[in-house]
Amino acid sequence: MAWNYRLIEKRIFDLECKPSLDTKEKIALAQLRYLLGIYDNFMFFKYQKSDEQIFSILQERATIYNDIWKDEKLRLKKTQEVDFSLDEALEIMHDFYMEQSDTFKKAFLQLFKEQSNIINVSDSDSYTFYISIFKQTYINITKDKTMNFLSDLVHEFAHGMASVINEDFNNNKNYSLITEVNSIYFQKKFLDYLFKNNIYPELALNEEIRYDKFINSAGKSIINNKYLLDCWDECTYFNSFLVAIELYMNENGLDYLEKILLETPQDIYEGAIAPDKYIEVNKNIENYQKKLIILNNQYNK
Ligand SMILES: [Zn+2]
Description:
This protein is mainly α. It has helices spanning 5-17, 23-46, 51-72, 86-97, 102-113, 115-118, 147-165, 181-196, 201-224, 232-248, 253-262, 265-273, 285-300, and strands at residues 119-122, 127-131, 136-142. A hairpin with a 4-residue loop joins strand 2 (127-131) and strand 3.
């Protein structure tokens, strides 16, 4: 999860409930109120006009995805999960990000160095938060006793890395239907990495199927809704997932991803929505599903 209206509201509420605020907190509060204003503005004005056209594209994609998924019958396996400590999780994640290209490696290390200042382990939602006045990323991560914890950590760090690479990308004012692309991309790549290196491969596969199920339910909700704004989060996850899959299945995925992160928001947006620019969204979903089935069959023998 990247930016979330409800969570920004909660942060504001938490700060407002405090008996007194220090200067840092006062600035943070001002910034959060500002973000909330931009979010409102964005949600209710910016995309109102193009709503219908975008939503029909997403509904079309969701229908195609739903048809493919229906036949595939991917099932979660009952497996023994592992209770990773934060340090163990950080170490595994570190090794993975060290295998990425220089841009991403550098962005990762910048955040990783500051881990004790920016990571907060909690029992609520996982989300990443960027306050541009401080030029600082904050990561809230839900600790549970499953692979989900590790996969979420990789996901949230990728949001933070997007802010390091291009401060505007994850900033609320540019929140778009592809905000989740880089995070989902690295999540996929990470699970693949675990699989290939024989690090909890069964859990990695299960996590991948679990995510697929989550996207499938988002797609169903898009099919069953009438307006983009009634299922905005689902649209964001679903669209980002399709773009991420396209990059993930493509040999030059990292190059494209870097390009997406560095382009201007409007270009990114158009690029992700218009199927003939940059990538062909939908093209590789079938291949991706096939890949999961083959792995799944191997593990169910
Ligand atoms: Zn996210």
